[in-house]
């Protein structure tokens, strides 16, 4: 899944980005309000980890704009929002949630709790259970484990992320462009063949018969059988 972290404290931003990438997510970073607006308009994000206090604006305002549709996203879908703040008063929590945030985490926090809250919000977005099962495949995002017919799969971080996204969208045709937007971060070259290569490598590791079908001219689909 592709995430945007909006955080202006360099040390905290670095820890959060590295931790979420270890969890298998594609993560972009914005250090201010204007940069976050620009990235939200130009890329598709599944979730935004949003600091309340930014040097050039309020995260609360950014959250309200996203929820109200005043800040249009690339694909028109509103990402889930996890608000980060040092404000721990009840009135502040209420204000954060009333602004449309899906969850609220007070600083300082444990990275493990942040990871768990991100997983929970992404499951909510896809109406998915903690353990994903599609046909002979099962995947546990929290344990970073995937199996086919009960046999553990030795996947790279990106292959795991790709399989995770396929399983969340089982039965849907996903174009290379869509996969690039949701599984890779902003550092990837949009002209690269990285999607085709990664899908090919994942298919080899999943074995035969392949549960991933190529739909000519349209993309790929994970079969639900």
* N-to-C span: 23 Å
Major sheet size, sense and barrel closure:
5 strands, parallel
Strands side by side in the biggest sheet: 2-1-3-6-7
Helix content range of the residues, please? Answer: 40-55%
Text of the CATH class of the largest domain: Alpha Beta
Walk me through this protein's architecture:
The chain is an alpha/beta fold and 225 residues long. The protein folds into 2 domains: 2-126, Response regulator (Rossmann fold, 3-Layer(aba) Sandwich); 132-222, Arc Repressor Mutant, subunit A (Orthogonal Bundle). It has helices at residues 10-22, 33-42, 59-68, 90-98, 111-126, 157-168, 176-183, 194-206; strands at 2-6, 26-30, 47-51, 53-54, 57-58, 80-85, 103-106, 132-134, 137-140, 145-148, 151-152, 173-174, 212-215, 219-222. It has a 5-stranded parallel beta sheet with strand order 2-1-3-6-7, sandwiched between helices. Helix 6 (157-168) packs across helix 8. The protein starts with a strand and ends with a strand.
Topology readout:
Layout: E1 2-6, H1 10-22, E2 26-30, H2 33-42, E3 47-51, E4 53-54, E5 57-58, H3 59-68, E6 80-85, H4 90-98, E7 103-106, H5 111-126, E8 132-134, E9 137-140, E10 145-148, E11 151-152, H6 157-168, E12 173-174, H7 176-183, H8 194-206, E13 212-215, E14 219-222
Parallel strand pairs: 1-2, 1-3, 3-6, 6-7
Antiparallel strand pairs: 4-5, 8-9, 9-10, 10-11, 12-14, 13-14
Helix pairs in contact: 6-8
């Amino acid at each position: 899944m592709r995430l945007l972290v909006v955080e202006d404290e360099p040390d905290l931003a670095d820890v959060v980005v590295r931790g979420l990438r270890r969890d298998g997510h594609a993560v972009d970073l914005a250090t201010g309000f204007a940069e976050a607006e620009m990235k939200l308009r130009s890329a598709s994000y599944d979730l935004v980890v949003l600091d309340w206090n930014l040097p050039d604006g309020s995260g609360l305002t950014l959250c309200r704009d996203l929820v109200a549709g005043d800040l249009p996203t690339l694909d028109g879908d509103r990402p889930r929002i996890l608000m980060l703040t040092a404000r721990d008063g009840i009135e502040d929590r209420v204000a954060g949630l009333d602004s449309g945030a899906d969850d609220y985490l007070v600083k300082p926090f444990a990275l493990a709790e942040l990871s768990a809250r991100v997983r929970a919000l992404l499951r909510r977005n896809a109406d998915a259970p903690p353990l994903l099962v599609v046909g002979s495949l099962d995947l546990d995002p929290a344990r970073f484990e995937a199996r086919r017919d009960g046999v553990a799969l030795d996947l790279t971080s990106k292959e795991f992320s790709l399989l995770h996204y396929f399983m969340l969208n089982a039965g849907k045709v996903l174009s290379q462009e869509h996969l690039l937007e949701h599984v890779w971060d902003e550092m990837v070259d949009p002209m690269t063949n990285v999607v085709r290569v990664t899908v090919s490598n994942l298919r080899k590791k999943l074995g035969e018969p392949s549960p991933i079908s190529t739909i000519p001219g349209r993309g790929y689909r994970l079969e639900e059988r």
